[in-house]
Structure formats: C-alpha cells, structure tokens
Request: fold
Amino acid sequence: MSRHSFFLLAALMAIGTVRAQSGHPYKLNWNVAGEELVYRSCGCADSCWVAEVRRIKQKQSIKATLRCDCEKLYFSEAKGVEKMVAEDCDAFNGDEKMEQIPKRIKELQSAEREE
Reply:
C-alpha cells in the first residue's frame, strides 16, 4: 500500500468514527399530537445523549430537553433553566433506555406544572 493510500484510508476511517460517535438523531415513541421526541447520542459509549421534545410544525421549537452528560441527568422545559434531576444516568443504562426516556420526560413535565 502506498503512503498516499494509507493516509487516505486513515482519514476515511477517522471520518467514519466521528460520524458514528456523533450519532444521527432518530425519533422515539411520543404519543402527543403535534410533537415528536428526537434522540441522539453524543459519545461516552452512548452515556452522553440528548432527547428533545419538539413541536412538529416548528422544527426548531424545543418544548423540553432531557440529557445525560456521561454522568449527570439534566432537564429543561422550553427556554427554561436547565436543572440537574439526578446525580447519575444509571436508570437509562439498560435495555429499556428508549422506553425510559419518554416516561421520565412526562414525569418531569408533570412535576414542573405542579410547581
């Protein structure tokens, strides 16, 4: 393999690794009319992630966010202040992660409305 081919191959592999780590967003089950729940991983072997409830007609309009920064769990509604809601994200480290995320967001939204 020539030196040029080797560097080209290494660069392509690096690009693929970056794309895999950044995670492409995809929709989770969210049964609220006019809204969607979008999840994406941001690293730490999928321990860094963001789930956003968005208004469908206004793609950039975020209604709520639940995120893990590899360690702690945070929640915010719309443009409200982000609050740490758990010291760890362990509740989301199992096979039921994608079911737990919408459940936890609904719980936190209900708690915010009660305050």
